Amino acid sequence: MSCPPFDNNSGVLEWANLRWPQHDVSLLMVLIDANPFFWSAANTTSLPFSKFLSHVVAFLNSVLLLNQLNQVVVIATGFNTCDYVYDSAAAGALPNQRAESLLQKLVEFVVKDEQLGKEDSVDGIGSSLLSGSLSMALCYIQRVFRSGPHHPQPRILCLHGSPDGPEQYVAIMNAIFSAQRSMVPIDSCLLGAQHSAFLQQASYITGGVYLKPQQLDGLFQYLSTVFASDLYSRNFLQLPKPVGVDFRASCFCHKNTIDMGYICSVCLSIFCKHHKNCSTCGSVFGQAQTNAPSTSNQKRKTPET
């Protein structure tokens, strides 16, 4: 049996396809939280943004070293915008230029995001545009799906630290259900002090992994141990399982997280209080039931014989 030729790039790819099956090839979409309000907060002194990037770059290099057919795409998630900052399949992305290209585009993105945020005053940390970065990642994956029958197995990794933005609830849930329909798992690595209800639901619904590292100084160890393996290898690994998932939703009227509320039977919009009309589809609601027990539920006494 003769070996495939090695005199051109197609021969190398053909030989690689024989050695590594397609189910071992990964398309990793990494969403980096670049919210300047989060990284400038006092609770992130244990992991500065520069040290965080060093862990991420080392992790991306390890993923690309596992299989030469692996592809990594990095999307920066800011406070006002989100954008692609790195694609390993792009022309000119040599191994020795990965870190320089990523850092240069990330610096340009942070400057652009800060300029867009000068007009708006933010109290506290503020939420990142997670819905936008998830939508961009899914659009990129759909483009890969339509490129041909043979494509790498896609998955999304969210390196997130900013608090959830209730105003993004509808958009994020739409992205989660789109990922579930496309069988794209969403992995979540939380860097902030609090858990994210949105990412808990995203990882649970799509079959991904949700993890909140206890020691941020060892972030690379968490990333390489839990999130570096491809989808096929996960069948043989004991990955962390979520202890509890917060399934609470946000109301459409005040954007607050609620435990109980009213749901429109037409468009499934959620409200914390009773309204006459649905603000989303315009459907007319009936009267809210009172807490007084109805006569039909009261027990009737049978006459004594």
The biggest beta sheet reads:
6 strands, mixed
Shape: globular
Largest sheet, order of strands side by side? 3-2-1-4-5-6
Strand content is: 5-15%
How far apart the termini lie comes to: 98 Å
- DSSP, total strands: 10
Secondary-structure element string: HEHHEEHHEHEHEHEEEE
User: How much helical structure, as a percent, in the residues?
Assistant: 25-40%
Structural class by secondary-structure content: alpha/beta
Rounded mean pLDDT score? 81
Low-confidence stretches: 1-21, 294-300
As a whole number of angstroms, the C-alpha radius of gyration is 24 Å
| Tally of contiguous helical segments | 8
Write the layout of secondary structure elements.
Elements: H1 9-19, E1 26-33, H2 36-39, H3 49-66, E2 71-77, E3 82-87, H4 98-116, H5 130-145, E4 153-160, H6 169-181, E5 186-190, H7 197-206, E6 210-211, H8 219-227, E7 249-250, E8 257-258, E9 262-263, E10 270-271
Parallel strand pairs: 1-2, 1-4, 4-5, 5-6
Antiparallel strand pairs: 2-3, 7-8, 9-10
Helix pairs in contact: 3-8, 5-6, 6-7
Task: Describe this entry's structure for a reader.
With 305 residues, the chain is α/β, with parallel strands linked by helices. The chain has helices at 9-19, 36-39, 49-66, 98-116, 130-145, 169-181, 197-206, 219-227, and strands at residues 26-33, 71-77, 82-87, 153-160, 186-190, 210-211, 249-250, 257-258, 262-263, 270-271. 33% of the residues lie in helices and 14% in strands. The protein has a six-stranded mixed beta sheet, with helices on both faces. Strands 7-8 form a two-stranded antiparallel sheet. The chain is globular and about 65 Å long.
